[in-house]
Structure formats: C-alpha cells, structure tokens
Amino acid sequence: MPEYEAVIGLETHIQLNTKSKIFCACSTDSWRAPPNTHICPICTGLPGVLPSLNRRVVEKALIMAAAMNVGEIAPESYLARKNYFYPDLPKGYQISQYDEPLAGNGSFEFPMPDGNLRRISIIKLHIEEDAGKTVYKNSKRLIDFNRCGVPLVEMVTGPDFRSAEEVGQFLIRLRQLLRWLEISDADMERGQLRCDANVSIRERGQQRLNTKTEIKNVNSIANVRDAVQSEIQRQVREVEAGRKIESWTLGWDDDRGALSKMRSKETEADYRYFREPDLLPIQTSSEDWAATVSQLPELPLARRSRFSADYGIPDYDAGVLTEERSLSEFFEAAVAAHGGDPKRVSNWVMNDVLRLIREQDTSAGELGLRPDELAEIIRLVERGTISNSVGKELLTQVQGSDRTPSQIVEEDGLAQVTDFGELSAAAAQILEANPDQVAAYRGGKSGLIGWFVGQMMQESGGQADPKSARKILEQLLEG
Amino acid sequence: MAPLEDSVTQTSQPDPPITPEIFQHLVRLAALALDDEEAEYLRGQLNKQLRAIRELASVDLPEGLPITSHGVPYPSETRPDLRRDEVKPSDKADAILEQVPEVEERFIVVPDISSTELE
Amino acid sequence: MRTEICELSAHEIVARLKAGDLTAESVLDATLARIEAVEGGTGTLEKAPNGQNGVHAYITLAEERALAQARAVDRALEAGDDPGPLAGVPVAIKDIFCVSGTRSTAGSKILENFVAPYTATSVARLEAAGALTIGKANLDEFTYGSSNESSAFLPTPRNPWSASVVPGGSSGGSAAAVAAGEAALSLGTDTSGSIRQPAAFCGVVGLKPTYGRVSRYGLIAFASSLDCPGPLARNVRDVALMLQVMAGADPFDATAAKVPVTDYLDGIEGGVQGMRIGLSPDFSRLSYPDAGTGELRELTLQSEIERALMDAAERLAGQGAEIVEGVELPNARYGIPAYFVISRVEAASNLHRYDGVKYGYRHAGEAADLIELYRKSRGHGFGPQPKLRILMGMYVSGDQYEKRYYERALRVRTLVRQDFERAFERVDAVLAPTTPTTAFEFGRIYGDSVAMQYADYLTVPANHAGIPALSVPVGLDNSGLPIGMQLMGPDFSERKLLRIGRALELAVEWQESRPPLVRELVDA
Asked: Per the structure, how many domains does chain A have?
C-alpha cells in the first residue's frame, strides 16, 4: 500500500466585530434576539435601497491583512455581486469581492505542539456581507434576516495543510490572533468563525492536486479536525478500493460524528459576478497601508519569544501568558511594577490570576485587579508582611476596591503575627490543651508538627507566620 | 452548460443564435415560468438584440483601454466618505414584515427546497 | 386662453403663495380639478376598456398626503415661517420611487401591492421643500421602454398633444402629467433617455443630471451605473428650481458625489453671449439596424427635426453664441449596442430580489417547492420587458461571454466618454436633437425590442458618459407634435446647461400652451 499524504486548503469566514452592519446602521449583535428585529430596508434588500460601506469593516480587514504578512495592497479593490437565488439572501445577490479582492499573497505562521513552526500561504482575503439564517420547524422553512449584512472577511489559504492536526492548530491560532487584534470575537459556535475545508489525497512525493471534496458547516475546531481526519481516511479507503474521488460537498453531522454528502457543487460561472455599481472601488493609499502595518500590535508568536528571552521564563509560561493579549499585557505591566523576579510574577499570574479569570469568566483587562496591585501583593508576601494564603485572598478583596492592598492589610489587620512573645504564649497554650499529641510527638511522631502548626494558624485566624510558628513549636516540643 | 461552452471556441465566428437549448438554460437560471408562445417571442427578440449587440465586435479597442464603471470619475475630492461605524436602529422592522406574504412568529415562511433541485 | 392655477409654473406658484395671492390648498384643489377633467382614470391591473378617453398619467393618486402637505404649507405661511422653496408646488412622482406609505409599483404586477416603508431621498427633499406629492406617475414596467406601452397598469399614458401617439418613456406618465397640468413638476429617471425622450415627445423640459448629482436612494434600480433621477417641468427655470432642492450628496448613496451644489437660478437669465455651442454630425447621421434584416443602415433625422436643430443653432448664434460645427463624437453610434449589454447585466441582477417571498406579488396557487414558487411568481409577475432584460443579462454575463460582451461594452463606454471629454475641450455644450423622430403611434414599435431601444439612440451617449443633458422643446413638427433639443455639457455643468437652455427656450419663443388633447378634455 502506497503512502498517502493529505492536501488540505481552508476557506475561512470571519465575522468582524464592528458595531453596525457592513452596509447599513443596524446592529450586528442579534444573538438571541427575536427573528427579524435587527433589520432595515437596506439589509433586507427592499426595492430601491443602496449599500453604504462601513469604514471600520475596511480598516479591520486591512489589520487582518497586515497580520497575515500581506506585503502590498492594491490601491483599488472592487466589490462585486455574486448572483444566486436563495431565500436567506434577500437581494438575490451577495455583495462580495471577486477577482480584485482587498488583499492577497500573505502567509500565517503558527506553532505546532511539538514546537515546530508551520507556515501556511494566504491566497486571498476579502470582505463580504453575511446572509440570513434558515430554521426548519414543523417541516417549514423559516427565514430570519437579522444576520444579513453582518460583515465577514473571507480568507482562503493555499492547499498547504498536510494533516487534520495542522488544520486544528491553524484554527486555534487564528482564533487567538483574531481576538488578539480585536477584530473578531471568533466564537465558532456562534458562527463568528466558520471554516470550509477542501480535502484531497495523493501519493507522497507527487506534486499534482487530485479531485477534492469540500467539507462545510462545521461548528467547532474539534469537529473540523475530526471531519478532515475522517475524510482523509475515507479517501484513502476509496482510492485503495480502486474507486474515484468525486468532487462532493460534504456536511458534518455533529450527533453522529460523521460526514454526509450535500448538494453537488455548483459551477462558479453561474454566479455571474460583476463589479457592484452601487459602490465605488475601495481605495487604500500606500500611507494608510503603511500606517496599518506600523500600528499592528506585537503578535502572539513574537511576544511569546520575547517573554522567554527578556524575562527568562520557561517557554511554557510564555505560551500561557500570551494566549490572550490582555493577559500578556497584564503580566508585562505586573513585572514592571514588581521589579523583581519575573518567574515569581509569572507563577502568580498563571496560577492565581488565571484562576480568577476563569472563575469569573472575564479577561485580564476587565478583571478589576490592576497589575501594580498584583505586584504590591506579591511584594507584601515576599517581605513576609502577609502570608501566602492571605495574599491569595487579597486578590479578590482588591478587585473593585478603591483601597490599595497595603491599606487593606493595615486597616483589616491582616498582617502576619511574627512577634515572638505573642506566638510563644499561643504555642504554650496549644501544648497544654493537647497533652496526648505532645506525648505522641515526643514519642517519635515528629510528623505531628504540621498538625500543631495548623492549630496555630487556626487560632490566629491565619495571621500567624507559619515559619515562625513552626520554629517556636519545635523549640517548645523538643525543649 | 454544454451548448454555451461549445460556442466559446468559435471566437472569430459570428455568434450562433440563442438556440432553444441555450434559451432553456437561461430561463432556468432566471427562474422564470414561461408558456411556449411567450418563450418563442422572447427568444426571437433576444436573437434580434444579439444581432444589434454584434456591432460591438467591430469596435477597434486601443490596447490597455480601461473600463468605465460610472462614466463620471470619482477623484478623492468628490468621493463620498465611507460610513462611520455607528448603530442607528431602524424602526421599520414591523413595516418590512407587513409586506411579507407569509409570516410566522416574525419568521418569513418559504416552501422547502425540493430535494431534486438543490440538495 | 386664461391661464388656470394648475397651469402656473412652479416659481410663479411659490412667488404668489409667498405674496399671499394663493394658498397651497387652492393650488391642490385646482390640480385635482384638472386631474378630474383630463385624467380619465388612473392605471389599473384590470383590463381597461378600449378607447377610454383621458391622459392616464397616474397609477396612484395621493390626495390625502398632498392635502396634509398643503395645509402644512398654509399653516407655515400664516405663521410667517418659510414654507420652503417648492411650497405648494404639485409634483408627480414617477412610480419607480419609494414613498413611505404609498404603493410603489414600478409599473409591474410583481410589485402590485408593495407599500414602501421608507421614502426615497429625492422625494424626501422635495417634500421637505414644501412640494405637494400629488401621486405616482405611470411608466414603462421597471422603466424598461421608450413609449410607456409596457406598463402593467392600463390604460397606459397618452400624449397630451395627440391621443394616438405615445408620450414616450419610460417617464411617460411624468411628462404627460406635467404637459397636461396635472402637476407642475415631475420627478423622473433617465437611464438611456427616459426623462429627455418623453419630455421631448410631450413638449416639456427634462433634465438628466450628472450621474451622482441626485441621490438614487429609493429609486427602484434598473441599471445602477446609469440611472439618474431628474426633473421634468414646463419651463427651464422650474427645472432649475427642482434640481436645486434635490441635488447633493446623500449618506445613503455611496455614488452621490461630494460636489458642492451651486445656485442653479443664479445667472440663469445671463444668456449665451460668448459661449461655444457644438453641433455633431454623429448626432445627425445615425447608424440604425433595418427593422427587417437587422443590417445596419445609415439613417437621417426626421426632416423637421433637422430643420429645428439648424433653427435653434441660428437663434442661439443670434443671441451671441458661437456655433462650432463638426464636433466629432464617433463612438456615439455604439451607445445602443453597449447599452444592450451593460444595462441588461445590471438589470438582471437588480431583478433577482423579486421572488414572491419578501414583498409584492406571490404566485397564489400551489407551488411544489421553492424553485417553483420563484418561477411562477416571477413568470407571472414580470411582463415581457423585464423578462427580456433578465434573459439577455444572464446570457451576456455568463462566464464564457463576460469578456466578449460585458467587459467589451464597458470599454466601448470609455470611448464614448472620451469623445465627450475631447469635445468639451472645444465647446461649452453640444446641441443635438433629443430624438430621431417625434412621438410615434401606439403599437407601431412596441413589440420590436430592438427598434424600441434604438429610440434612445441620441440620448444614451450622455448616460454612458455620465454627463448632464437638458432637453428643451423648440417647436412642433408638421403634425403638431413637439420637437425637443438637448444640450449636453461636462460633468456637473448643470448651471451652465440651464442657462443655455433658458436662452434657447426664449430664443425659439416656445409657448407653454395647452396641448390639444387637454384643451379638448377641459372644454368637454
């Protein structure tokens, strides 16, 4: 049996997170809204209406292009009409771009779990409007136009993927990037990031492209990976059995975890694309493009290497801390405010701050805990003013408070008790109240020291400094 | 599609007329129900129009001549600005639905797509 | 003949209203009385009885809307407020514009019951200026025609100069309404001549503004890169007044140019002294397909039109204009073939949205599935003219033909444009006949879609080039039918064109007379 390799290209649709739709002033946010409430004459294509292009859509798409390493932008690109009948397409054509898209010739580099980098070519990137939604209910077809006119970027990759795993990683990193750049919320389950995959196989070493199938309508990264994987396996089985691959369109059935055949592929000629006469060409001056490129923030991959290099933290830490942009910024600001060992700050952020973010379903930017406050808490712990556990509790107390961590510690009496006399008196009391345990300890069960420390902590309401308490207890027990 | 593609190769020849087969293809694309008499009239007129359109083939087009999209050029001084990203909710949603022939719980109702046509 | 109130020009109405000589309500009453006398029934989808006498300019009358507007104007006047530059002026809106709360049919069964929930920008500006929206004027179905015979709403409009000839199209109802005193002004659209040709046929003034001068928002689209809303009126000053109100950028139309609107009435009486006005041989010798064989033949203009052109040129020269002969516009002859392609591609796409699902006509019987619902709604809802445009649009934009037809046509369009750019280096404006013939008889051309399209031979070049063109009546032919001359100028030269047009109107001593059919109906 020859060895096969998969050849996969992706067509992704990214919903831009503008406030208003691409061609009208209706809100883009209609999640859970009743049907046909976020509509107007323009996005429902009433006779006589005209589109009016949202500037932010172009700006966000250009940011996207810059992040995809697009070198040059055509000074003019054109919107085009893609004509077809479908009930969720109220004008009978979609305003999209065709042979003169906003951008092309880019690439996207992302890390694989083994640490290697993969580079995927971006063939084209264009803007277009979304269509409405169809719901099936009681054997009726019901149309909701709320989503009509929501802005999309369509991005087409080269046939550069060689495995389902690569496709999955690409989507994870693309999602990360989109959120990083604040151009899309990229929630696949809400359709904000959609992906069609073109899959074919060939014998390893061959260069030609074989007949491909197209997988559509998959709504999570895991499912895309599974769907691509199962299609690769199906094609191998077909070819091994001497059958031809036909250019089917396949849909993913989430419940069954299986692919099924959809309608046969339409030919592109039937769309009869032509330039949209209702809109002027999109002009991008070389100055605007240069500004977009220069204002692009540091991207996750670059920030990750810089964190490792500059702060001397492990690559794993750098990866976690750059998962999300506001978290990486939080970390960096906390390191600066702290001024000490970045690894210590990294530990606090990765363990405690991230836990808070997950528990509270928020982001570092909206946590209500400032990086300098975290730095202050860490310093309080480092100096021994407060215990580690008080420090962790302080995190939530500082959230939304207008008092500084030091103020809270002082005013609420949270500082650790390190006074020798006070601790000795308390220790003596505990020994006196627990003669059995004292006897057992002195009889050789030295592991009980932890139990005694625990008693001390309990008695002091957590304010005793555990190290000092242990030392005093040991002296009393052994003395 | 086949009859249309055949004619592509004959670029130097005069255009073949729109045959009943090509016409039927166009009618399908256009989603039009036509009776036979109307279809014959329309096809005859289209062929007559094609003869007039053929005059375009005789125009000597200079190399690199650009296309004109609107006649009037739009230099940057006269180009309208792109729209600002601001939400202005429309109050016309109900009036739009009032025009819809069949509505159910604010959804627009359409018959299903036949499995033989598109599925 | 005593001038009735409904025959006053728009600027006279405004002046007399402001002077307190008239009320808007009395203007409305006079206009409705004229409509009552001459209209003879508005268009309906029912089979109209034959031989019904009347002008039949309208599809829908909007008396209540107009009455509310008239009362608002009168209240403003009483309160000493400015009632607006078109206060109390009755306007007929071509039924291709959406007007909130009124039926907007486009002259088609497929929009028989469509009530727009919004108002076109041009109409909103007219209404804000105090105009009275009298009603929606009949037109060729979706504006597809040059005789107004293709409307689904019958009877179709008559020419007020003779009941046996067409009013022209597609703004036939608009031109007929203005000529018959059923409105002082009308808002029309011009894609290949649809304002100028009916204006010429009905003896009124019509302006196709520069593309992008007047917003298209709310104009039910035919060919989006060519459509221009514009005014029709009984004199040049009224056209200027109406354009003034409508012109200018619009956030709802991305092609409405950000060009400042000048004062079109300022200097309109300034005359043509020193202006250079061109005549083009390419607008006198026409390359026309033979009706039978389709072979191209050279045709000359109807002789009275040729004479009227020379007469107009001489009179302008008499006013001090310099006439420049031999201005070459050699690519104008390709205007119709190129238009056959460009307009059809855009129209087919623009008509995609009419499917019986969202608004308008829906096939009433059973439809087995969605595709059948589409086919039947569109098949029964559209008349032959939209169908022809859809099918040709599908044909020439097919992937295998797109370069050969559509792209080629757009390049030919560039040649047409370049002709004019060169011409306007030499002259301020080109003077040419608006139409090759005066109004033709009902049924003579309708049915022959090629001959009908060629009726726009002289008007379509300005649409390709995007330039403004003003048609002015200059006299009558031997049968007593009006002859129109058009002035074409550079982009956004409306002010100058109106000034020349005003001079031409005075020079040819055109009288705003009561056309024969109107006289007959009013006397009866």
From this structure: 3
